Amino acid sequence: MPFRPHPFSWAPGAAERHATREGEWRGADSVAALCGAEIRPVDTVESWLWPTCVRCDVEAHRIAGVPMPRRRRMAAAG
3-36 b/e with 16+ CB inside 10 Å = b? Predict the structure, then answer.
């Protein structure tokens, strides 16, 4: 299993990079993302370049106890 310094990892799916609490997501049919979406993971070089899901980013920062960068806070606020 890859190194996980936090109780979540990032998994591309649904054209965004989502965060998930599920362990090994590679090969899974679907995983629950922190934003509440069920995504089908996609593990390609291109998928890691997809934009980050804002809701997953906010929740991941909250779980990690790390403040959101100002620009991302503003985007999350909508």
Answer: eeeeebbbbbbbebbbbbeeeebeeeeebebbbe
CA–CA separation, 60 and 58 (whole Å): 6
Question: Number of helices and strands (H, E) in the chain?
Answer: 2, 4
Could you tell me which residues come within 8 angstroms of residue 67 by beta carbon, excluding any fewer than 6 positions away? 61
pTM for the whole thing? Answer: 0.82
What are the tens digits of pLDDT across the range 44-67? 999 999 999 999 999 999 999 989
Report how far apart the first and last C-alpha atoms of the chain are (Å, whole number). 36
Strands 31-32 and 16-20: unpaired
